[in-house]
Amino acid sequence: MFDLKNYKRFSLRTGIVSLIGVASLFDTNPASATIITNGSFENYFTGWETLGSASVRTAGFGSQPTDGSFYAQLDTFLPQEQENFVELANFLELDITVLDQIGKGKGEVFEGSAIRTTFTAVAGDVLNFDYNFLTDDFGSEYFNDFAFVGISGQLNGLADTFSVLADSMTPFVNETGFSTYSQKIATSGTYTVTIGVTDVGDGAFDSGVLIDNVNVVRLDIPDPPPVPKPDPPSVPTPTDPPSVPTPTDPPSVPTPTDPTSVPEPTSVLGLLTIGVLGVRSQLNKHKQKCEGTSKTQT
């Protein structure tokens, strides 16, 4: 087997790389926004902090990158006399016993390597990365090396010596092959993501993990459906006032005809005079007639 100890130069602490800060980059998919700095390690460990044995590799290491030309490689090959479990616990900002509980076995973590970076996310963002667990160890509850991820103190195991393994083209004996880890961010805020690998129980057999394509995807948030604005209460258009019938001409009152003319007193007197004269004339005629008759008889 390839001698991993002669393949790399290792030290207890490779040093802390300055945290450059979180930059916002946009990929070719307009529905996502990548906000992890140097998530494919094309610029070595720019934007990341490292602890233990950390390197940047290419496909020449025996595994193809999933994004770009490089990936990060962590392993547990540290001089046994320089156990770094205390430094590892401090790097994770956790009690070491919390890390012990991630393993499925009974052994204790006594050394390991890790990288970390900080990013800002909003609720609903999804953290993703690809990983490939490598190991020379075999499944044993006392020597169950494992890889892990921590997001602001919340740890999860990625793979261990009990995972489904295949022969590896890398300097390690077995590997899981690349898989993708995803976790949805529940609350907006600033987070620290830490990815690492541990050696459990002994230092006789080493393990490692390859990491690539670390990104935070911001899904398109659909615009909320428009809230219909209630129409203002309709004000009825004033109708024309009810038509007032134009008053018709009052019924015609017949013009009173002149009352039967009453002869004026002068006219009455005249008539009476005429009447009297007429009567008198008749009487005279009658008298004359009578007198004429008498004379004849005489």
TrEMBL record:
Residues 222-257 have a biased composition (Pro residues). InterPro entries: Ice-binding_C (IPR013424). This is Uncharacterized protein. Residues 1-33 form the signal peptide. It comes from Moorena producens PAL-8-15-08-1. Residues 221-267 are annotated as: Disordered. Residues 258-267 have a biased composition (Low complexity). It comes from the Bacteria. Keywords: Signal.
